[in-house]
């Protein structure tokens, strides 16, 4: 017997795997990353850079560049996300107005911009100017009358259908991943799942273009959720430029968490809310360093958007409000009622939308995504046009509902009967009886509320970019404004009631209906998404209404309590489960008294576990095992008799290692012995060269005993981000538990279909 290392002086060849080779450490599509391994690799890389930095000035400069690369990536993400958001806002304004008319002096101007530049616009007719013409004026020279109305109606529908058809066609042909909100998939990716192409360049380009088209088409959807996806695409692109992030999936996810914060920052003009949204709602692993970088990325993104000034009001906030009346304790009751409404609406929406999306997946309806989008767009445009509150863009509608009625407001909602003897200052108008305009507006708002509730259920989840924040806020704002007007009129006509007597005297400005709209918007958004802290911060950043935090908090908490009473899942978690993504939610509690031995594979009656031995299998044996199974990795044991655990080898790395060895090392053939030990085994003379694969072996796989409670195992999988965990007894291998096994077991315990977890 001779040592194989002494044959033909080939010992150095057998250790060629001590040098890294391409694709080792990468993951296949629809697989979960190993957080512990990624963390360990980054620690090794950092240790190597630190030790090298003491060798020369150049290495020291390289270590500084490495340290600053994270901040550079954040700066680039903030600049790109802010710029794209500004361009999207400007394009949406123009294309939304294009459905109704065109600016003759400069066709790229929106209605508002067109009339800004006009010198012939009066204050009373500030929405009318000679430069802006409706399509009926331009084509047939008439602005009033039945024929003009019908022509404008027809062209409104045609433009909407054109925008929607173009959007769904672009998504279908060029970037199928550009559809939907993107937040469920971002949450899944941040938990460690790989979806190749979801954050790619084509997805970024198509999502940006189609987002403008679908929002302009008038469909009941928003751009806020998709902007998070767009920002994460930017984050993925810039992280691929730096090897620190491109070669480490764990570090890449830290960048994506910060990018999500930048996305919300530009979507709402809420940088602090963006950071909290990333922390509360999206991120799975959020170290303190990522918090600082998220803050910086959100700051840069908000600053960039402010520089572009897409709203033309020199403000970052989308719906700036300025109320002159404080809120009173007695108003907490209607605020809490709005919270209850928000929770009920959230529950109704999630159940109906998931039922419709499941029907879309399981029936022939899913085969015709273009037709579905066209039909929903046509129905939306036909019903929306006659009602002025549904015809305009949803953002404009929310802005009007949030507004306080000043002396200069021309909205129907502000058509109150004025007291001719009123001598109060302009900004402190007392409560007044509602005029005919307010009653008309109430009927139109009631119809708009029913329409928005129904159409949003069918719109969210179609094969186009679709956000849910703005439609949810619109439903709440409509309901809130109606409640606000009701309370205002009640206080005016019955100011002698005991609940109004202390704070609402005749001639006082007691109730602000716009505040109720704001609270209703927060309640409905909270009911659908189950956000709390980040929601309140986003709302006060969005509106500038800092002193109204308590009503917002009361509504947000109430809506969450009510919605949670019917089911713990928010809309994003519901879509994650519908799509079968392997997402282990940190918020879920596991309270069942099961053990690791109940979940591990193999179970009784199943074939024994497929394992590798440390030094007795040939290359052909390993290749046969890989070919005959589809497992992602194999435990390595001393021998099949002892089953003493040595380590764990990933399937992908075994395939790559054997392929590279055959190409680069002479003498490696099918009957070469594969060994995972430090020293080669003793082999008979004239044996082929053995193959050393110790480098790809994980010598410290995570193990639990067979009597470990599943509650502990689930916690370990959540907090350490494991792919798999080996089950042992006294060092002897018994079985394996994968993330998929944990998810199946949790589904089974919750009386759900365990096979709904589709991916690895």
UniProtKB/TrEMBL annotation:
It is a multi-pass membrane protein. Keywords: Antiport, ATP-binding, CBS domain, Chloride, Endosome, Ion transport, Membrane, Nucleotide-binding, Repeat, Transmembrane, Transmembrane helix, Transport. PROSITE patterns: CBS (PS51371). Residues 600-664, 697-755 form the CBS domain. InterPro entries: CBS_dom (IPR000644), CBS_dom_sf (IPR046342), Cl-channel_core (IPR014743), Cl_channel-4 (IPR002246), ClC (IPR001807). It is found in: Endosome membrane; Membrane. GO terms for molecular function: antiporter activity; ATP binding; voltage-gated chloride channel activity. The chain crosses the membrane at residues 68-92, 153-175, 195-215, 227-243, 255-279, 332-356, 368-385, 441-461, 468-487, 515-540. The keyword Protease does not apply. GO terms for cellular component: early endosome; endosome membrane; Golgi apparatus; plasma membrane; synaptic vesicle. It comes from the Eukaryota. Its main location: membrane. The keyword 4Fe-4S does not apply. Belongs to the chloride channel (TC 2.A.49) family. This is Chloride channel protein. It comes from Centropus unirufus. The lineage of its organism: Eukaryota, Metazoa, Chordata, Craniata, Vertebrata.
């Amino acid at each position: 017997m001779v040592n194989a290392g002494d044959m033909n002086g080939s010992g150095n060849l057998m250790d060629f795997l001590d040098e890294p080779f391409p694709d080792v450490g990468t993951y296949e599509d629809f697989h979960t990353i190993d957080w512990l391994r990624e963390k360990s690799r980054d620690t090794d890389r950092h240790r190597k850079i630190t030790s090298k930095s003491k060798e020369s000035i150049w290495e020291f400069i390289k270590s500084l560049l490495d340290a600053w690369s994270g901040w550079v990536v954040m700066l680039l993400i903030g600049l790109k996300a802010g710029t794209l958001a500004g361009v999207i806002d400007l394009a949406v304004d123009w294309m939304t107005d294009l459905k109704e008319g065109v600016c003759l002096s400069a066709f790229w101007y929106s209605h508002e911009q067109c009339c800004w530049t006009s010198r012939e616009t009066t204050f009373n007719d500030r929405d009318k100017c000679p430069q802006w013409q409706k399509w009926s004026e331009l084509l047939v020279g008439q602005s009033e009358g039945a024929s003009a109305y019908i022509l404008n109606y027809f062209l409104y529908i045609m433009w909407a259908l054109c925008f929607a058809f173009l959007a769904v066609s672009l998504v279908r042909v060029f970037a199928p991943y550009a559809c939907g909100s993107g937040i469920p998939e971002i949450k899944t990716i941040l938990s460690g799942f790989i979806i190749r192409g979801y954050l790619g360049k084509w997805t970024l380009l198509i999502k940006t273009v189609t987002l403008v088209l679908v929002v302009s088409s008038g469909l009941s959807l928003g751009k806020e959720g998709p902007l998070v996806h767009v920002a994460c695409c930017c984050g993925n692109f810039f992280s691929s430029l730096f090897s620190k992030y491109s070669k480490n999936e764990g570090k890449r996810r830290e960048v994506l968490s910060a990018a999500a914060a930048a996305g919300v920052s530009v979507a709402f003009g809420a940088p602090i809310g963006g950071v909290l949204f990333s922390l509360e709602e999206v991120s799975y692993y959020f170290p303190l360093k990522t918090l600082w970088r998220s803050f910086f990325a959100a700051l840069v993104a908000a600053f960039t958007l402010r520089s572009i000034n897409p709203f033309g009001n020199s403000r970052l906030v989308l719906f700036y409000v300025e109320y002159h009346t404080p809120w009173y304790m007695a108003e907490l009751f209607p605020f809490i009622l709005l919270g209850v409404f928000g929770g009920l609406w959230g529950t109704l929406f999630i159940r109906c939308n998931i039922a419709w999306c499941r029907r879309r997946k399981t029936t022939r309806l899913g085969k015709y995504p273009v037709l579905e989008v066209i039909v929903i767009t046509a129905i939306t445009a036909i019903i929306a046009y006659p009602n002025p509150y549904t015809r305009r863009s949803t953002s404009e509608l929310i802005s009007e509902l949030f507004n306080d009625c000043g002396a200069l407001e021309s909205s129907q909602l502000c058509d109150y009967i004025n007291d001719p003897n009123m001598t109060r200052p302009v900004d402190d108008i007392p409560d007044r009886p509602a005029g005919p305009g307010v009653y008309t507006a109430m009927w139109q708002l009631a119809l708009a509320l029913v329409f928005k509730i129904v159409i949003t259920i069918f719109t969210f989840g179609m094969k186009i970019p679709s956000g849910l924040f703005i439609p949810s806020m619109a439903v709440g704002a409509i309901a809130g404004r109606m409640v606000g007007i009701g309370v205002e009129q009640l206080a005016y006509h019955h100011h002698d009631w005991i609940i109004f007597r202390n704070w609402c005297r005749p001639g006082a400005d007691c109730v602000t209906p716009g505040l109720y709209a704001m609270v209703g918007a927060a309640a409905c958004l909270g009911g659908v998404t189950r956000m709390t802290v980040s929601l309140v911060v986003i709302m006060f950043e969005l509106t500038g209404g800092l002193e109204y935090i308590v009503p917002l908090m009361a509504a947000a908490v109430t809506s969450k309590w009510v919605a949670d009473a019917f089911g713990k899942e928010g809309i994003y978690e519901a879509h994650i489960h519908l799509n079968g993504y392997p997402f282990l939610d940190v918020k879920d509690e596991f309270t069942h008294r099961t053990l690791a031995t109940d979940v591990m594979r193999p179970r009784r009656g199943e074939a024994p576990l497929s394992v590798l031995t440390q030094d007795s299998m040939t290359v052909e044996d390993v290749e046969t095992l890989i070919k005959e199974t589809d497992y992602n990795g194999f435990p390595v044991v001393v021998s099949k008799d002892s089953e003493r655990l040595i380590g764990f080898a990933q399937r992908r790395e075994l395939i790559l290692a054997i392929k590279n060895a055959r190409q680069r090392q002479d003498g490696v053939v099918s009957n070469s012995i594969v060994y995972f030990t430090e020293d080669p085994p003793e082999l008979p003379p004239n044996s082929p060269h053995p193959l050393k694969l110790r480098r790809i072996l994980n010598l410290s796989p995570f193990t639990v005993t067979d009597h470990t409670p599943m509650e502990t195992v689930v916690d370990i999988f959540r907090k350490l981000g494991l792919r798999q965990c080996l089950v042992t007894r006294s060092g002897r291998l018994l079985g394996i538990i994968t993330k998929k096994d944990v998810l199946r077991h949790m589904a089974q315990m919750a009386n759900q279909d365990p096979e709904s977890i589709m991916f690895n």
